[in-house]
Amino acid sequence: MSENILEDMNELMLQRREKLAELREEKAFAEKYETTHHAAEIEKNYEELEDKEVKLAGRLMAIRTHGKASFADLMDMTSKVQLYIKQNNVGEDRYEFFQNLDLGDIIGITGTVFKTRRGEVSINVSSFELLTKALRPLPEKFHGLKDKDIRYRQRYLDLIVNPDVKETFVIRSKIIREMRNFLEEKGFLEVETPMMHPIAGGATARPFVTHHNTLDMDLYLRIAPELYLKRLIVGGFEKVFEINRNFRNEGMSYKHNPEFTTLELYQAQADYHDMMELTENLIYSLSKKVLDKTVVEYEGTELDLTTPWRRITMVEAVKEYAGVDFTEIDSAAEAYELANSIGIKPEEGLSYGEVLNEIFEERVEEKLIQPTFVMDYPIEVSPLAKKIADDPRFTYRFEGFIYGREIANAFSELNDPEEQKSRFEKQVEMREAGDEEAQMMDFDFIRALEYGMPPTGGLGIGIDRLIMLLTDSSSIRDVILFPTMRPESTN
């Protein structure tokens, strides 16, 4: 920002503070304003509201003065509406007071609904009250607020000047509400589980660490609620879900934020096929009910959410999209050879399954544009999933992909306590070898499984990524009200 612009801003802010001091002396502020309508209702219900008195409150977004009459735009939560303020209607002193208001000031108005000669629905103001003085000027009208760094840091300002941003978060709220409705209609119970864990578990990720002073112990912000929700299945609940935050101390990008919102659910007497059906029906229903469509456009590409979605195993996907066939091999050495043949150089010491997964992530994921379930993941990357009886190298696990991005992750849950303990031990070995994302041993979870957990299907859906797709938002920061940001410079 240039020095001249900063000087102008400082001068404008000084002028507004001087006005505020005068207004305080005059006791010009109303404590509150009782409203009867919102702006969007005025346009929508004009026929029944014509010539009727209405009361609204909102922010002044434009003022156009024409001698003894002025037009202004008032914006509230729902929309903008035009105001018509005439000196003869409000009185000379009040009209002069109105002319001295600034853009961004919050006022309450009373008036009657009418249409101008140009046919624009407006309100003929009979009285108004100043509610709040804005001490900072809004961004210049024709350029608006484009700087993404400012938009994400000052979301309040972004919401004021970019109405489409506000609509994105209204849609987000509706999607989460409909998600709850969908699950509750199917008999799921919403629960809450701890956000601070003594053991970081339920996913492969690096946790954030905090310290509890009274107990004098380190705790981990949860990376997943999985192990607690499974304890509830052990305890006798048959269908549970939780919508809440997870925290992962990992990289940041247009599709990763350190704290993010997920849906996670578990259903007794179900498997990963049931979870596939639930996932596709849920997302189809959300799009239909909230957006009133089942084919959405994302970054210029049409995505058809109609069920059923495509199903393909990881081995089949790697063969189709990367051109290498893992069905013909069964050793890590042969897996490395296949990877090298297509220009992928995995690090030393990986297993057959880990090399397969690396090829999938590097060469296949981005090509899965239309909704697709990729099934049967290697056991090494699925420590909480039940292994396939006919081929124990793989598990009953799937991930759902749309536009090359993982949207859902689900298992037929491992419920054998001895095998689960063995898999945890392998994760501990990986952790001790330097893998900070490997899982920890959770003896209490093993103890819970020893009491018996029924066959269970589990599912996790990344709500932020799903909303990105349904609102055609290019960055995860566009769908999180206050995304994680580096602190502003003290300058």
UniProtKB/TrEMBL annotation:
Binding site residues for Mg(2+) 2: 406
Top-level EC class: ligase
Entry's cofactor comment: Binds 3 Mg(2+) ions per subunit.
InterPro entries xref list: Aa-tRNA-synt_II, aa-tRNA-synth_II, aa-tRNA-synth_II/BPL/LPL, Lys-tRNA-ligase_II, Lys-tRNA-ligase_II_bac/euk, Lys-tRNA-ligase_II_N, Lys-tRNA-synth_II_C, NA-bd_OB-fold
Pfam families assigned: tRNA-synt_2, tRNA_anti-codon
GO cellular component, one term: cytosol
Protein name: Lysine--tRNA ligase
Lineage of the species this protein comes from: Bacteria, Bacillati, Bacillota, Clostridia, Halanaerobiales
Gene responsible for this protein: lysS
